[in-house]
Structures are given as structure tokens and as C-alpha cells.
Amino acid sequence: MARVVSIEVERVRRLIDGLRRDRRTHPRHGRGEYSRLARDVVAACEALIQSEPAGVPALARRAVDLMTTALMYIDDSSGILGDDLRSLMAVHARACAAAPPDPERLAGWLVTLRLDGPGWPDFELRDYVAVLGDKGYAELSRRVDDRSRTAGPDLFGRTPFGIRVLREQLAELSGDVDHYVAVLADDLYAAPQYRKIVDALRRAGRPAEAEGWAQRGLGIGNPIEKGKLRDVYGDLLLERGATDEAFVLRWQLFEQNPTQAHYEDLRRTSERTGHWHAARDEAISRLRDAAAAQAGYADHLIGVLLDEGEPDDAWQVAVEHAEDLFDSRWHQLIYLRQPVHPRDVIEPWQRLIQRRLDASTDKYRYGKAVTMLQRLRDAYLAAGDATGFGTYLDDLRDRHQRKTSFIAKLDHASLGSSGWGPIR
After folding, report:
1. Whole-prediction pTM
2. What value does the mean pLDDT of the chain take?
3. In angstroms, how far apart are the furthest CA atoms of the chain?
4. Alpha carbon distance 255, 418 (integer Å)
5. d(CA 153, CA 151)
6. Domain extents for the chain?
């Protein structure tokens, strides 16, 4: 039996050796095969955890190291290989849980991986907290403190990213909320840092402090990801019973930038505060004004009107902004409109068909155009104008007669010239 296990370990080791990458290989060569090999390694390590767990942490660690290096020489613009590497890290964490390695050596490897590597893989210390124990936690903290004292600032004058991440995760794992907040407060570069503080204080049952930090975060100059922080702040206001403040918060944001998303946020908050009945019409009026002043808001207004059960108003706005909408929005509106008002959709269908035929970068444009022609034919027929479709189709053939592939698809669809052939 021991011999069988030994053979299996050797098989997995050889499989892992295949993750070594020759840096002279073209970055795009063999990416699919490499990904499949990585997934095979993950599966093999998972299986080995069940049969012979003691050797898996070292095997998985070697696989992570080899793939981390290999990704420096492979084009992973799709992100697939990065996902495979994260899977390897996950199986390493599970292997360590099943057969704990020396905690101090594990701590040293994790620090090296985060601080001396190319920037990947990403991992969370919480996945290793039980394995590290007090001894590993202390060793990891010591190493991070040593590196913090000797590391110079990055290009933006801040503590290097890897050190910041490890310090934050160590502080979070300590269970000391005030210490965690203090570490986060050392680097308040954007709204997400404030949100971490707010979330920690909320979990600790300290809503007043959480609200104060949220308010501070919303006042910083960097607008990145303020939306999520604003959501939390609004919830805190509602939990405190400050319904008027919560409504004003949402209304001010919507008034400044009347998008469909901000309208929905305003509605959700207003329904909880009892303001919505009075605010709804005013909010839609604000959206109409925005669409009249800036065409980009027309799509937001249409989305809101559809959600509010006003398809006729949404159609009218679309007609007024015919060239300002994405094709997807027009398809949505047409499918809603055609069963009741087929004649109204004839011109929009014709416009969409022409846009598709002109889309030279879409290799499926001819097939899509024929599909839309079938729907256009249905509209003409429902409107009682079979002759009109025949005239339109003849004109379309004349204008695009040099597009032989398109004409062939037309013929195959049997749309006819003035008749009504079957839809295939």
C-alpha cells in the first residue's frame, strides 16, 4: 500500500514539474494547454489530500511558485491563468489545514510571496489563520514590521502595496477593532478604506462612530467607489431614525447626476422614509429636464419610465432621441411596442437594419440583419401593408446588391420581394 501512495505522489510531482515555463517561449503559445495542466494539478492535489495529505502542502507550494514565475512570461490578458493560480493557492490553504506545516516557515513563505513576488497571486491571511497559530502569526507580524521599517515609499509616496495589505490583514485577524481602525487610518487614500473602517465599527456595534467615519469618507476629494460608502452611510442614517437626512442625501446625489441607478437608490430610500409619493413626479421631471439638456440622459429616462410602467411615454422619449440610444434599448422598446402598435416600429426596424449592415466590424451582421428583416416583415403584415414590405425589400436589395453574402442570406430566408415566404 505504501508503495502505491509513493507512486501517486511521484506522479503528482512530475505533473507539477510541467508548470515550469521556458521564458523564451512566445507569450501566447500554449496558454490553453498550460491552463488545462494547472487545473489537472489542482485536481491531483485535491485527490492527494484525501489519500496522503502529509506531502501535499509542499507539492502545492511548489506548484504555486512555478506558476507564479511562469505568469511573468505568459500573456494572460483573459485572466484565465490568474484564476487557475488562485485555485492553486486555495488548494494549498486546504492542504495546510489538512496537514499543517511548520508555522514559521509558512509565515516566511507567505511574506515572500506577497512582498517579493511579481504582484500575484492574491491571497487572504484568514485562509491560513488556524494553521499559522500564535507562533506563525507572531513570525509573520515580525517580518512585516521589519520590512515596514526598511521599505521606502512607492511611486505615489505611500507605503508599498504588499506591506499595506499584510498589515491590514494582520490587524483584522488580531480581533482588536481599534487597532484595525488605526492601521486602516494610516492610509486613507480612497473611499474603500473608509468603508472598511465603517464596516468594522458596525460589526462591533458602534454605529455612531461608523456614521462619523462614513461622513468623513464622503468628504474626501477622491470620488472612487464613493457609491458603496454612501449606501452604508444612508443605511446608518435610517437605522438611527434620521429619515429626512437619508432622503436629502439621496436627493442631492440624484439632482447632481440624474441617472437611472441614482433614481432607483432614491426610490428605495424614499419608500423607507415615506417621501416617495411626493418625490416621484419631481424626480421624473428632473430626469426629463436632464434629457432635454443632455442627450445621454435620455436612456436613463427611458429606463425609469419603463420601470414605472409608462411604456408609451418611454416610446415617445425614444422617438425624440432616435439617434442617441443604443441598439439594445431600441430592441427592448420595439418588442414592447410591436404587438400593439406595429406601424410605429417599421421605421425604427429599418434604421436598426441599416446600422447593422453598416457595422463592418461585426462578422455576424448579415445574419442579424436578416433576423430583424423577419421581424420587420411581421410588423408590415400586422399593419396591413404587405406591399410596403415588398417595396422596401426590393430597395434594400438594390442598395446592397454588392454585398453578395447578404443577398445569399436573404434568398435563403425566402423573404421574397413582394410576397411572404416562410421564415426559416
Report:
1. 0.79
2. 93
3. 85
4. 52
5. 7
6. 1-99, 103-148+160-174, 348-424
